[in-house]
Design a protein that fits this description.
The complex is a heterotrimer of chains A (314), B (573) and C (245).
Chain A lengths: L15 H17 L3 H19 L1 H25 L6 E5 L2 E4 H27 L2 H8 L4 H30 L9 H32 L17 H22 L5 E2 L5 E2 L4 H47 L1
Antiparallel strand pairs in A: 1-2, 3-4
Chain B lengths: L1 E11 L8 E9 L3 E6 L5 H6 L10 E8 L2 E2 L5 H7 E4 L3 H4 L5 H11 L4 H15 L14 H13 L5 E5 L7 H18 L2 E5 L3 H4 L5 E6 L2 E6 L1 H11 L9 H9 L11 H15 L26 E8 L9 E8 L4 E5 L6 H8 L7 E6 L2 E2 L5 H7 L1 E4 L12 H11 L13 H11 L15 H13 L5 E5 L7 H16 L3 E6 L2 H7 L2 E6 L2 E6 L1 H7 L6 H6 L9 H13 L1
Parallel strand pairs in B: 3-8, 3-9, 6-7, 7-8, 13-18, 13-19, 16-17, 17-18
Antiparallel strand pairs in B: 1-2, 1-4, 4-5, 9-10, 11-12, 11-14, 14-15, 19-20
Helix pairs in contact in B: 4-5, 4-6, 5-6, 6-7, 10-11, 10-21, 14-15, 14-16
Chain C lengths: L1 H34 L5 H22 L4 H16 L13 H12 L1 H19 L5 H20 L7 H28 L5 H43 L2 H7 L1
Helix pairs in contact in C: 1-2, 2-5, 2-6, 3-4, 3-5, 4-5, 4-6, 4-8, 5-6, 6-7, 7-8
The chains are: A mainly alpha (314), B alpha/beta (573), C mainly alpha (245).
C-alpha cells in the first residue's frame, strides 16, 4: 500500500495466488534448506529483484541494514558454536572451527535472502492481494484487517488534528522532558480512543445497514485468473516438486557438523539447481520479457509514425 | 400504494421522560422526493432511523410502520438491506473498508452475490456516479465530498427502492453539497428511486422536493409542496419559517395572500421581486439607511492590531507548492472579521500560521503584538490567543462536559478579565456555561450531546481560557439556522466586550449577516476585503441568495431582512 | 446463555488445539528431523507458532462475530498501530502491549488474542513484513490472551497497579524473550548456553525500556480506557447483542 514502484512490474500484475505461492516456495526453500548453492541462487536473485522493484532505496537499505546484520550473523556462529572437526585456531581457549565458520556464512546468507525476499514481498503483495487470498478463508479477520488499514491513516491524521487543537487551548505537547512528553502523548491518545470508539458505532451501523451478518456472504475481487497465471502455477508446481524430490532422495544434501559434507554435483543435481534458478529468477524473466515487448512496440510506433508522415509528404 | 405508511408512531428513549417521537402520521409514495426539516433535536434522525429496522434505536415504542403495505418489522434483514438504502451524516464514519472498489461491493457481498454480477453492478454504479477515476484508490485519498458520494454509490449498488439520507451534506462544503444533491435528484428522476432526506440547509434542496415535512418536538408540524409549505408555517407562526430559503421568506413577509405559490429558487424570487417592484412603481435605485447588519465597531486606536500579517509565504514541504502566496491581512481590535473562500484555497492553513502551528518562510506575522515566527504556540496562548478547531471532538478529554470545562479552569489563564468575567475560576464556569447555553448539559458525556451542542461546549472550553483573540474554523458547519443565530449573538456579546473574532467559513449567509468585515480568500491570498454590504454586493456569483435575487433592483441588499426592509420602505413612499 | 456459548467455543478451541498439539506439531518436528539434517530450529519453531495461532483464528471465524464486535476490534488494532504517532517526540516508545492488555481484560481472552495478533500483522503491513511477523503476532496475541484469561479467572485484578505490573512483566518476559529467542534461532545453529545468554543480555536494555514504558502506559491509561470501553459496550448494547443472536 505504501510501495511506490519505479516501473510497472510484470510479476505484480499476475494473480495474487501466483504471487503468494511464489513467495511461499522461495521463502520456504530459503529458510528450510541451508544448502550453499540454493542459498547463493536465492540471495543473488532476491538482491537483483529487490533492486529492480525498489531501485536506489533498496541499495541504500542493503548497505546500511542488511550488510551489518549479515556480518553479525557470520561472526556470532563461530564465536559461540565450537562444534566441527576442523579446528583452525583458538580464541581464549575456545576452538574456532571451519565448519562453524561455514555455517555462519550460510546462516548470514539465509537471513540476508529472507530479508531481501520480504522486501520484494512487501512491494508485490499489496493489502488488496492479501485480502483477496484470505477473504474467503478467514472472512471476519480479513474484514478487520481491511478496516484497520482504513482506520490507521485516519487516526494518524486525527492525532495531528488533536495535537493542533490542544495547542490552540494552551496544551503544547512538543515541549518538556520525556515524562511530560509521554504524559501529553497519552492525553492525546486518550482523546483519540474516545473519538475512535464513539465514531466507530456509526461504522457498525453502516455495516449492518448494508446487510453484514447475513448468511452466505461472498468475497468480491477485481482479480482474474487467466491463462498466463495457470501456466505459471503449473510450472512452479513442477519445478518445486522436482526440487523437493531431489531433497527427499538425498541428492541435494548438506551437512555442516561434525564435518562439512555436500552432495556431488552430478547431472541430476545440476538439473535441480537449474530448476531453482528458474524459479528464483521467474519474476525477473517476466519483467525482461515485458520490457523487450515494450521496446519493440515503441519502435513500431515510432517507425509507423515516420512512415505516415513520409506518406503525407508524398 | 404508499411505500411507507407511519401511523401514530410514538417513541421514547430509555431513561428519558419525554417522547422523542410523539404521534407521527406520515405516508410516503413511491417515487416521491420528500424533504424533512426541523430544528436540531426535533426528532428527524430518530424518525428516519425508524424506517430501517437495523438502525432503529432501543427504547419504548408504540404505533405502526408499514413498508409496502406490510409491517416493516416483518420484512427480514435481507429484504430490508437490498430495498432500503440509508446514508448517514458523517462521510468518514460510514466507510468500512480501505479501498473504493471494496466499499462499492460491500453490500452486494453481504447479500451473497457472485463475482460476475457484482462486477456488473459496481461497473454500472461507478459509471453513473463518475467515480471510475478513483475506483482503485484508497479511501484515505478521497475528499469529503467524494467520500459521501462513495457512500451513496455503495448503497445504490444494491438497487434500493427507497433512499433515506440523514443530513448527508452537513459536513460538506457548499460546492460538494450541491454536487451531492444534484446526484440525489438525478437518482430520483432518472431511476425513480424514492428519496427521503433530512436537511438544515434548505436553500438548495427545497426546490428539488415534491413534499416538505416540517417537524418540531417530535411532531409533524406541517407537510406540503415546497411552494405552499411557507403559508402553513406562516399561519402557524412557526419559527421554522426563519429557516426557509430567502425568496420564500421575502415573499411571505411582503404578501398577505394565502393562495399564491411561494417563490422557492433565486430565479423565482427574482421574478417575484421584479413583479413586486413593477406593481408598486418602485424606483430601482432606493437610498439605504445604514443600520441593521454589520454595524462597524469603533477601533480602539490605543491597541495594536491583534492580527497583522504582511507578505506571508508558506508551504508545507520544501519542494511543495506554495499554499500562502504573499498573504496580507489586518484585523482590527474588537471586530468580527470573516474570511470566506472555496475549499483548498489555504484558509485553514492561514489559521494555522496565525495560531503559530506553521512558520512561514517569508513575511511577517504579528498576533497580539507577538511575532509568531519567533515564538511557539504556547507563548501566543499566554498572550491571549484562543482557537476553536473545526472539529469540536478534538477538544474533549473527560467523561462529562463539566469535568472537561473544570479542566480548563484549573489549567487555563485566569487573569482578571476586562470583559466582566470574574477572576475566580469557580464563578467563571457557570457564567460561560450560561453564555453558551450549555448549563443543562453540564453533566452529560460530550459524545452524548448533539453536534451543535458539542460545538457550544467546545466554544465554552475555549472561552474559559479567556482569549483576547478568538480564531474559529468553520464554526457553523452542521448547525441549524437557529443555533447560527444564537452563535452570532454570543459572538456579538464577546465582541462588544472587546474580544476580536476571526472566522474562516464557507457560510456566506452567516458572514453577510453578522460580520463586521469580510474578505475573500483565493489562491493563498486575500483578493478583496470590505464591510459585508459592500463586499457581497460587489460580487456577482460568490454572494448571498438575497443579493443575487435583488441585485437588479436594489444595491447592497445582502440578507433577506435587507430585501424585505427595502421593499417596505419603497412601498411606504 | 453467555456462559454456555463461551463454553462451546472453549471446547472447540480445545479440540482444535489438541489436534494441533498431538498431530501437527509432532509431524512438523518429525519432518524437520527426517529431512533437515542439521538442527533447523528456526523453520520448525515458525511452523509451531503458526499452528498455535490457527485455533484462535478458526474459533473466531466459526463464531461469526457481529459487526459491532468486528468494528471495536478493528478500532483497537488501529489505535495500537497508529498510537505510535502520538509519541513521535519520544522514540522507541510504543503503546501496543498496554492496549492489547486492556483489550484482553475488557473484551475477553479470545478477542485479546485477536487484537494482539492482528496488531502485529497490520503494523507490519505498514512498516513492512519480515521474518519477525509471525513471532510478533504470536507474542502480542498471547499477551492479550493471558491478560483476558487471568482476569476472567480472577487471578489478575482489573486494578491499575496489578495490570501495570503484569504489563511490565509481559513486555519484558513474554514479548522480549520470545523475540530474542526467535533471533537466537535465526542467527545460530545450536542452543549453547553462552549464545542464548548473550543474546538475552543484549536484549535486556531494550526490553527494560519496553517494560518500563508499558508500565507507565498502563498506570495512566488502563482506568480511563477500560471505562471508555465499558461505556461503549453498555451504550451500544454489545453485551446484549450476543445474547439476542
Amino acid at each position: 500500500m505504501r510501495a511506490t514502484k519505479l516501473h510497472a512490474d510484470a510479476f505484480s500484475g499476475c494473480n495474487p495466488i501466483v504471487n503468494f505461492m511464489y513467495f511461499a516456495f522461495v521463502l520456504g526453500i530459503t529458510i528450510f534448506f541451508l544448502h550453499p548453492v540454493l542459498l547463493g541462487i536465492s540471495f543473488v536473485s532476491g538482491m537483483v529483484y529487490s533492486i529492480y522493484l525498489n531501485g536506489g532505496k533498496a541499495v541504500k537499505f542493503n548497505l546500511a541494514f542488511l550488510l551489518p546484520l549479515m556480518v553479525a550473523a557470520a561472526v556470532i556462529n563461530p564465536a559461540f558454536n565450537h562444534q566441527g572437526v576442523t579446528i583452525l585456531t583458538y580464541v581464549r581457549m575456545n576452538p574456532i572451527t571451519l565448519e562453524s565458520i561455514l555455517y555462519g556464512i550460510a546462516a548470514a546468507v539465509m537471513i540476508g535472502s529472507v530479508i531481501l525476499w520480504f522486501s520484494c514481498y512487501n512491494a508485490v503483495m499489496t493489502s488488496d492481494k492479501f485480502l483477496y487470498l484470505f477473504g474467503r478463508i478467514i472472512p471476519a479477520l480479513s474484514l478487520i484487517i481491511s478496516m484497520a488499514l482504513r482506520f490507521v491513516p485516519r487516526y494518524k491524521a486525527q492525532i495531528k488534528r488533536i495535537t493542533n487543537a490542544q495547542r490552540g487551548i494552551g496544551r503544547d505537547v512538543s515541549s518538556g522532558n520525556v515524562i511530560v512528553r509521554i504524559r501529553s502523548g497519552l492525553s492525546i491518545l486518550s482523546i483519540l480512543v474516545t473519538w475512535a470508539l464513539e465514531n466507530a458505532i456509526e461504522t457498525a451501523d453502516s455495516m449492518k445497514s448494508r446487510g453484514y451478518g447475513l448468511k452466505g456472504r461472498t468475497a468480491y475481487s477485481n482479480f482474474r485468473f487467466d491463462f498466463r497465471d495457470r501456466i505459471l502455477v503449473v510450472a512452479m508446481l513442477l519445478f518445486f516438486a522436482g526440487i523437493i524430490a531431489s531433497i527427499a532422495l538425498h541428492r541435494l544434501s548438506v551437512l555442516y557438523f561434525p564435518a562439512f559434507v555436500i552432495n556431488v554435483p552430478d547431472g541430476f543435481v545440476l538439473v535441480a539447481y537449474a530448476e531453482y534458478l528458474i524459479i528464483c529468477t521467474l519474476p525477473l524473466m517476466l519483467d525482461i520479457r515485458e520490457d523487450l515487448i515494450w521496446r519493440t512496440l515503441r519502435l513500431k510506433i515510432v517507425s509507423s509514425g515516420n512512415k505516415s508522415s513520409n506518406g503525407a509528404d508524398v | 400504494m404508499a411505500l411507507y405508511e407511519i401511523k401514530n408512531l410514538k417513541f421514547k428513549y430509555p431513561e428519558s421522560e419525554t417522547f422523542a417521537l410523539d404521534g407521527i402520521d406520515l405516508s410516503v409514495d413511491n417515487g416521491e422526493f420528500l424533504v424533512l426539516c426541523g430544528k436540531s433535536g426535533c426528532g428527524k434522525s430518530t424518525l428516519l432511523r425508524h424506517l430501517k429496522t437495523v438502525l432503529t434505536p432501543h427504547g419504548k415504542r408504540i404505533g405502526e410502520i408499514l413498508f409496502s403495505g406490510k409491517p416493516l418489522a416483518e420484512a427480514d434483514l435481507r429484504t430490508q438491506t437490498s430495498r432500503i438504502g440509508f446514508v448517514l451524516q458523517n462521510p468518514d464514519n460510514q466507510i468500512v473498508t480501505d479501498k473504493v472498489w471494496h466499499e462499492l461491493a460491500f453490500g452486494l457481498e453481504s447479500l451473497g452475490i457472485g463475482d460476475a454480477v457484482i462486477r456488473l453492478r459496481v461497473a454500472e454504479m461507478a459509471s453513473f456516479f463518475g467515480i471510475q477515476g478513483w475506483y482503485h484508490k484508497s479511501v484515505f485519498e478521497l475528499s469529503g465530498g467524494q467520500k459521501q458520494l462513495l457512500n451513496l454509490a455503495a448503497v445504490m449498488t444494491m438497487q434500493p427502492e427507497v433512499l433515506i439520507l440523514d443530513e448527508p451534506t452537513s459536513q460538506l462544503d457548499p460546492i460538494a453539497a450541491s454536487d451531492f444533491l444534484a446526484t440525489i435528484k438525478k437518482i430520483n428522476t432518472e431511476i425513480g428511486t424514492t428519496v427521503i432526506l433530512s436537511e438544515h440547509r434548505l436553500e438548495e434542496v427545497l426546490r428539488e422536493a415534491d413534499n416538505v415535512v416540517v417537524m418540531g418536538d417530535g411532531k409533524i408540524i406541517a407537510k406540503d409542496a415546497p411552494a405552499h409549505i411557507g403559508h402553513k408555517l406562516k399561519a402557524l407562526k412557526d419559527p421554522m419559517l426563519y429557516a426557509m430559503p430567502t425568496p420564500m421568506r421575502t415573499f411571505l413577509a411582503l404578501e398577505e395572500s394565502i393562495g399564491e405559490s411561494c417563490p422557492v429558487t433565486v430565479r423565482e424570487g427574482r421574478d417575484y421581486l421584479a413583479r413586486y417592484a413593477g406593481a408598486e412603481g418602485m424606483a430601482t435605485e432606493v437610498g439605504y439607511k445604514t443600520n441593521g447588519a454589520g454595524s462597524c465597531h469603533p477601533q480602539r486606536s490605543s491597541d495594536p492590531s491583534p492580527v497583522a500579517v504582511k507578505d506571508v509565504w508558506f508551504r508545507y514541504e520544501k519542494n511543495g507548492e506554495d499554499i500562502l502566496r504573499g498573504l496580507t491581512l489586518d484585523v482590527r481590535c474588537g471586530e468580527m472579521f470573516c474570511v470566506v473562500g472555496g475549499n483548498g484555497t489555504g484558509k485553514t492553513t492561514a489559521l494555522g500560521v496565525l495560531s503559530g502551528l506553521f512558520k512561514p518562510y517569508r513575511g511577517k506575522v504579528s498576533v497580539l503584538g507577538v511575532d509568531t515566527t519567533k515564538v511557539g504556540s504556547a507563548a501566543l496562548f499566554e498572550k491571549g490567543l484562543g482557537v476553536l478547531p473545526q472539529d469540536p471532538q478534538t477538544l474533549f478529554t473527560r467523561s462529562s462536559i463539566r469535568d472537561d470545562l473544570l479542566d480548563m479552569v484549573s489549567h487555563g489563564r485566569h487573569a482578571p478579565s476586562e470583559r466582566g468575567f470574574t477572576a475566580s475560576p469557580a464563578e467563571v464556569l457557570p457564567e460561560i456555561a450560561e453564555l453558551t447555553e450549555i448549563t443543562t448539559l453540564l453533566d452529560q458525556h460530550p459524545y452524548d450531546v448533539s453536534g451543535g451542542e458539542q460545538q457550544r461546549a467546545a466554544l465554552a472550553k475555549v472561552l474559559l481560557t479567556n482569549p483576547k483573540l478568538l480564531l474559529m474554523d468553520e464554526p457553523t458547519k452542521g448547525m441549524d439556522s437557529f443555533f447560527k443565530r444564537k452563535l452570532a449573538g454570543i459572538l456579538r456579546k464577546l465582541r462588544d466586550g472587546g474580544m476580536t473574532v476571526l472566522i474562516v467559513s464557507h457560510d456566506l449567509e452567516f458572514c453577510a449577516q453578522y460580520a463586521d468585515r469580510c474578505a475573500l480568500f483565493f489562491d493563498g491570498n486575500i483578493v478583496t476585503e470590505n464591510a459585508p454590504r459592500a463586499f457581497f454586493s460587489g460580487n456577482s456569483f460568490y454572494t448571498t441568495a438575497a443579493n443575487r435575487m435583488s441585485r437588479h433592483i436594489f444595491e447592497e441588499a445582502i440578507t433577506a431582512e435587507d430585501v424585505i426592509e427595502r421593499c417596505r420602505q419603497a412601498k411606504q413612499r | 446463555m453467555q456462559t454456555s456459548e463461551t463454553k462451546v467455543t472453549g471446547q472447540k478451541r480445545t479440540i482444535v488445539a489438541a489436534v494441533m498439539i498431538l498431530f501437527c506439531i509432532p509431524l512438523t518436528i518429525a519432518i524437520g528431523i527426517l529431512f533437515l539434517n542439521d538442527r533447523s530450529y528456526y523453520p520448525i519453531s515458525l511452523m509451531i507458532i503458526l499452528f498455535a495461532t490457527l485455533p484462535f483464528a478458526m474459533v473466531f471465524e466459526s463464531r461469526k462475530p457481529q459487526a459491532r464486535e468486528l468494528v471495536i476490534i478493528a478500532v483497537l488494532v488501529a489505535i495500537a498501530v497508529a498510537g505510535r504517532t502520538a509519541f513521535f517526540m519520544v522514540p522507541q516508545v510504543k503503546p501496543v502491549i498496554a492496549i492489547v492488555i486492556i483489550a484482553g481484560v475488557s473484551l475477553g481472552a479470545e478477542s485479546g488474542f485477536i487484537v494482539g495478533a492482528l496488531t502485529g500483522f497490520v503494523s507490519n503491513f505498514i512498516f513492512g513484513q519480515g521474518p519477525w511477523t509471525p513471532w510478533q503476532m504470536f507474542a502480542f496475541g498471547i499477551i492479550g490472551f493471558l491478560a483476558g484469561l487471568l482476569f476472567s479467572k480472577g487471578i489478575l485484578s482489573g486494578k491499575t497497579l496489578p495490570l501495570s505490573i503484569f504489563g511490565g512483566l509481559a513486555a519484558f518476559m513474554i514479548y522480549g524473550l520470545l523475540l530474542d529467542t526467535a533471533a537466537v534461532m535465526m542467527f545460530t545453529s545450536t542452543w549453547t548456553k553462552a549464545s542464548i545468554l548473550s543474546t538475552y543480555m543484549l536484549g535486556v536494555p531494550f526490553n527494560l525500556i519496553h517494560g518500563a514504558s508499558t508500565i507507565l502506559f498502563l498506570l495512566i491509561l488502563s482506568r480511563p480506557m477500560t471505562e471508555k470501553l465499558t461505556r461503549i459496550k453498555k451504550k451500544y448494547g454489545l453485551v446484549e447483542e450476543r445474547n439476542d443472536s
